[in-house]
Automatic annotation (TrEMBL):
The keyword Transferase applies. It catalyses: 5,6-dimethylbenzimidazole + nicotinate beta-D-ribonucleotide = alpha-ribazole 5'-phosphate + nicotinate + H(+). SUPFAM superfamilies: Nicotinate mononucleotide:5,6-dimethylbenzimidazole phosphoribosyltransferase (CobT). Keywords: Cobalamin biosynthesis, Glycosyltransferase, Transferase. Pathway: Nucleoside biosynthesis; alpha-ribazole biosynthesis; alpha-ribazole from 5,6-dimethylbenzimidazole: step 1/2. Belongs to the CobT family. It comes from hydrothermal vent metagenome. PANTHER family: NICOTINATE-NUCLEOTIDE--DIMETHYLBENZIMIDAZOLE PHOSPHORIBOSYLTRANSFERASE. Its EC number is 2.4.2.21. The keyword Transferase applies. GO terms for molecular function: nicotinate-nucleotide-dimethylbenzimidazole phosphoribosyltransferase activity. This is Nicotinate-nucleotide--dimethylbenzimidazole phosphoribosyltransferase.
Length: 256
């Protein structure tokens, strides 16, 4: 397996397991509140884990931010989506203008939405509010070849790392992720299939609401892409490069 870039490796070396002691401490605090023990279900579990990850005692989450990564995909040429590629750029503008569902939900939760152009096949020029980190104008068609080079995959991951560092400097308490890219459920399904060893017909959904005929075609496209590119499941960056997307790689970096 190839080694990741120096910046990615430094980040990986900093990752440590979550402290179960801190998880238990948080759970004890939840149990002491005036409510039936465990009555909030998974919400308590997530809350305890969040507290343990942050490494600080229970306190209110003040600053919240959703990073929305956008990128286009060459595989749309295979007619795997109900919508044309141009919709990606249109939706980016919608996000920036506050007209999408994520904007409404974020406003309700007093959460900032940051839109990042990772690889939209459109020239946004100097549109205010958009974070310009374009790695390429859309990926390659994974049914015909690799989605991107390994260096591009690492570059996209490093964008996510950079944004996470920025969020830390801004003292943001919790981050969320989102994605926009017509056709991106095809690479998502391909990645899941490769990493889990699950057949594409089990990992592939209907994305934008495609019919049965189009779904079967989509599965075949993903099968062809995996067979042609032969991504190494032991090398996640290789998988991203061969059947991934720029916005997916950006999310990887932010999560790491």
């Amino acid at each position: 397996m190839n080694m990741p870039s120096k910046k990615i490796q430094i980040t990986l070396d900093k990752i440590v397991p979550v402290s179960y002691e801190k998880i238990n401490q948080a759970q004890k605090h939840f149990d002491s509140l005036t409510k039936p023990v465990g009555s909030l279900g998974r919400l308590e579990e997530w809350g305890a884990r969040c507290i343990a990850i942050r490494g600080v005692p229970c306190q209110k989450v003040e600053k919240k931010c959703v990073y929305l990564f956008a990128g286009d995909h060459g595989v749309v040429a295979e007619k795997v989506s109900a919508y044309p590629q141009e919709v990606t750029a249109q939706m980016v503008m919608n996000f920036l203008n506050g007209g999408a569902a994520i904007n409404v939900l974020a406003k309700h939760m007093q959460t900032e939405v940051v839109v990042v152009d990772m690889g939209v096949n459109h020239d946004f020029k100097n549109i205010p509010g958009l974070v310009h980190r374009k790695v390429g104008r859309g990926t390659g068609n994974m049914r015909r070849g690799a989605s991107m080079s390994r260096s591009q995959a690492e570059q996209a991951i490093e964008v996510g790392l950079e944004l996470a560092d920025t969020a830390k400097q801004q003292k943001i308490d919790i981050l969320g992720t989102g994605d926009m890219g017509i056709g991106n459920t095809s690479p998502s399904s391909a990645i899941l299939s490769v990493l889990t060893g699950t057949p594409p017909n089990k990992t592939t959904g209907r994305g934008t609401g495609i019919d049965e005929k189009t779904w079967k075609h989509k599965v075949a496209v993903i099968e062809d892409a995996v067979k042609l590119n032969r991504p190494d499941p032991e090398d996640p960056i290789d998988v991203l490069a061969k059947v991934g997307g720029f916005e997916i790689a950006g999310i990887v970096g932010l999560v790491l």
